[in-house]
């Protein structure tokens, strides 16, 4: 049957959207950008209303509702469905032995999708919030937030209209009694009665951020030096993870976490080549290297808040891997719930992190409650559908908290100042991170024992110079490099000259001078460098006809090959075999390709593939779309970027 009430519900939400300002509508589009991006972009407000109330979008959005909003939405939907069933009951069940057509007609009836507007007072009464007080205020606030998010709409008479699919989404969930306020995790009474921790959450966050910045820097540098090959089945092999973990100085789980964050932040990408799929840094990595330390961490932490995966958690029976696009839609909501619950823990409560893996924790007696249980109970209030009745929820939550501690968001059983900023707005991390991490150092202390010490984080230029001519020897609050004959020769091999290398090192010296032993080391290495030469040659051309060889060496059309005779019958070319063959054939010759065994090689045309560029992200796109949907002229700044919207 046709559901006219559902159509009237779309009319109500369309009118509600039309009453918004462009800024309010752009805020809604930004909040729901992820689920809406899975559908075609709307061209009118009614299309946006249909997208918001589609089953797929609702399935994503209800995961991010807290207990009051979820209760108001579920209660309204239940009352609405009951009233619709009474107003327009569905067809009676077919009699026993009915034919196939009768059974299908009953099966395809849509009475369960009918909706009726519900007066707010009926919803408040069903929730036990009919009288003024905290429950009533919480219910009213929750209803207004549902209106703001487009998950409900006010009808013309003030009644509430909700999407007809809500009962299908929420019918299986027992939300319990209406709770106006979130439960607060209780302090650990079994812990020693120490009052103040030896370090503050801010100090712990500073130390964690410094370690994280150095670890991410080394990890991406190792990936830039040697790209990682992915398995045919997807994801990095264990040996690749171990290699990168050793280069980064991190554990394997933390390496998997940073790799997935770098992939989500577009700092690395997966590239297909004839030999397989490899992971290597993108062009954004070069820009990332030029940023201050805090600005480097901001995209990684923001990516963690919305990551559809828990990289350090590996379900039983699966192999740990990385660089696999996650499919855990509950992870962002569970992450938010845990951080929101920790935000209410006062400093000094000392709620301990759960042990990993969680099943190895000591069994608690029946009827007892631990701070960990209280924390999960509080987190359940913030995002019920992400925690309640989800498989392995406790184990996944434990891994999330350990990831948060590694990232500097959690310390001493509560949120750090950085964690509170991430909870409020992941896009506002630059300022708190700049306060946590000191500026990069441009100078080093050069010592007579052939070491250079940087008492902090070195800038990219200084780190590159020292890495080119010395070996990194230690990490920590101060970074030490050691100069050796081999390291100086490495710099000379890379194109440095002794005089320019000494000039660059002198400019990087905090005293403006270099120790005499370092100068002698560079000069001695330069004197012995290059006494033996290795001739580069991409391929050789051989012919028994010496006159033909002389003709090729003098041919003007072949000058780009830079042909040189090393024997009367042999020429070396600076271009690879394919390019050399093409040039010879273009000049009118008929060469044949020969293998290293001396046999003629049969040539086949190669198949070349390239990766399509990723679409650019325009921060003004939501506001420009809001103006178009409302039928308003675009602002000048938006009009200039309409093509990217």
Any chance you could write out the topology, listing elements then pairs?
Blueprint: H1 4-18, H2 22-31, H3 33-36, H4 45-52, H5 55-61, H6 67-87, H7 100-107, H8 120-126, H9 134-148, E1 153-154, E2 160-161, H10 166-170, H11 201-225, E3 228-229, H12 238-248, H13 252-264, E4 268-273, E5 276-281, H14 283-289, H15 293-305, H16 331-342, H17 371-382, H18 384-387, H19 393-406, E6 410-411, E7 414-415, H20 417-424, H21 430-436, E8 445-446, E9 451-454, H22 460-469, E10 471-474, E11 479-482, H23 485-493, H24 498-507, H25 516-528, E12 539-542, H26 546-554, E13 564-567, E14 570-573, H27 577-586, H28 621-630, H29 636-640
Antiparallel strand pairs: 1-2, 3-5, 4-5, 6-7, 8-9, 9-11, 10-11, 12-14, 13-14
Helix pairs in contact: 1-4, 2-28, 6-8, 6-9, 11-12, 11-15, 12-13, 13-15, 15-21, 16-17, 23-25, 24-25
Give structural notes.
InterPro entries: XPB/Ssl2_N. This is Helicase XPB/Ssl2 N-terminal domain-containing protein. This protein has 645 residues and is of the alpha+beta class. It folds into four domains: 4-171, no CATH class; 201-358 and 371-435, no CATH class; 445-528, no CATH class; 539-587, no CATH class. It is 47% helix and 7% strand. It has a four-stranded antiparallel β-sheet with strand order 8-9-11-10. The protein is globular and about 100 Å long. Mean pLDDT is 84; it is low at 191-196, 602-616 and 639-645.
Q: How much strand content do the residues show?
A: 5-15%
Distance between the termini: 39 Å
| Largest sheet properties | 4 strands, antiparallel
Taken together, the total number of domains comes to 4
The low-confidence parts are 191-196, 602-616, 639-645
Tally of separate helices? 29
Q: Measured on Cα atoms, how large is the radius of gyration?
A: 33 Å
Spatial strand order of the main sheet: 8-9-11-10
Backbone structural class: alpha+beta
Extended strand count: 14
* Overall helicity: 40-55%
Would you tell me the overall average pLDDT?
Answer: 84
What gross morphology would you assign?
globular
Protein name: Helicase XPB/Ssl2 N-terminal domain-containing protein
Organism: Streptomyces angustmyceticus
